[in-house]
């Protein structure tokens, strides 16, 4: 996605975690590979007027999608982490985990759609040059639900993701709760305020870190705060009570996202917003992501009544 290559890498080492995620999921394939992986993956593009580019995505389709041409399906929009792309779940082997969960009856049949978002954090950039959030809401969701036999309603639409994608999922679901029945986030990139050490590093190494757009150059704390799930939860607390919410994090997350997760849990509790939250043993790495991906998918399946 050409315009998005200018975006920042706010936490550059998350790319290492994402690579580890991919390697780790490949390792667990021996335990998770289904006996009959009958579903299929379709990777295409959506032409975007807003981004002035073609945006890649992959759609993970259950075997029943081709078998029953009249059935309509819920859709889970699954957002990749920093350093990932639209084929993350496919290339990593996570598709085999999905198939195993379906084969054993732990999840039902729903579409999983994974868009490429580069390093956008799934929001509109500070300078307004890359409006990924507008693209996702106004163009991407409608395009996907026209192309595939989607239910096309709030009750049949979920959103989830890991790390940067977890941040994006919470941001979008909390800002547009009328569009989603459920949100799930693993190790979401949560800070109430960007830590000064990250701001200083970003400003000092702006050119090599490509910090020129997403959260401001230099990083604008007010812009960050305005876009956080914390702020959005306060603004839309009443409507969030109708949104099914799940998030988890490792107790040894190397970026301190476990603290942010605990703070979001406390905030939602104070706002009396129902949610499911877990701190598990583990870090911000492939072991944690692979181990708890099934719980996130099972949550979505229950929320989407599948």
Description:
- The chain is of the alpha/beta class and 306 residues long.
- It has 14 helices and eight strands.
- It has an eight-stranded mixed β-sheet, sandwiched between helices.
- Helix 1 crosses helix 14, helix 5 (94-103) crosses helix 14 and helix 7 runs parallel beside helix 11 (229-235).
- The chain starts with 13 loop residues before the first helix and ends with a helix.
Would you spell out the secondary-structure blueprint of this structure?
Layout: H1 14-27, H2 29-32, E1 40-48, E2 53-61, H3 64-67, E3 75-79, H4 88-91, H5 94-103, E4 111-115, H6 132-147, E5 157-162, H7 164-175, E6 182-186, H8 196-204, H9 206-209, H10 221-227, H11 229-235, H12 237-240, E7 244-250, H13 257-270, E8 276-280, H14 286-303
Parallel strand pairs: 3-4, 3-5, 5-6, 6-7, 7-8
Antiparallel strand pairs: 1-2, 2-4
């Amino acid at each position: 996605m050409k315009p998005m290559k200018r975006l920042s890498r706010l936490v550059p080492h998350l790319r290492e975690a994402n690579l580890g995620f991919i390697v780790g999921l490949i390792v667990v394939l021996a335990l998770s590979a289904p006996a009959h992986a009958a579903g299929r993956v379709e990777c295409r593009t959506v032409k975007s007027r807003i981004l002035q580019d073609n945006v890649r995505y992959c759609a993970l389709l259950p075997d029943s999608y081709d078998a029953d041409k009249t059935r309509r399906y819920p859709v889970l929009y699954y957002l990749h982490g920093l350093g990932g792309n639209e084929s993350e779940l496919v290339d990593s082997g996570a598709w085999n985990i999905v198939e195993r969960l379906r084969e054993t009856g732990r999840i039902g049949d729903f579409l999983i759609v994974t868009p490429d978002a580069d390093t956008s954090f799934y929001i509109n950039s500070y300078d307004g040059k890359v409006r990924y959030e507008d693209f996702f809401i106004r163009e991407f969701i409608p395009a996907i639900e026209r192309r595939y036999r989607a239910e096309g309603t709030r009750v049949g639409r979920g959103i989830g993701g890991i790390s940067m994608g977890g941040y994006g999922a919470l941001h979008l679901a909390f800002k547009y709760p009328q569009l989603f029945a459920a949100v799930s986030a693993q190790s979401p990139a949560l800070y109430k305020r960007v830590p000064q050490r990250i701001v200083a590093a970003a400003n000092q190494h702006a050119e090599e870190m490509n910090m020129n757009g997403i959260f401001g150059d230099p990083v604008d704390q007010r812009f960050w705060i305005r876009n956080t799930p914390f702020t959005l939860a306060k603004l839309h607390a009443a409507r969030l009570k109708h949104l099914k919410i799940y998030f988890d994090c490792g107790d040894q997350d190397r970026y301190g996202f476990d603290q942010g997760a605990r703070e979001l849990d406390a905030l939602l509790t104070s706002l009396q917003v129902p949610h499911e939250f877990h701190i598990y043993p583990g870090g911000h790495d492939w072991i944690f992501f692979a181990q708890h991906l099934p719980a996130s998918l099972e949550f979505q399946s229950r929320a989407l009544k599948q």
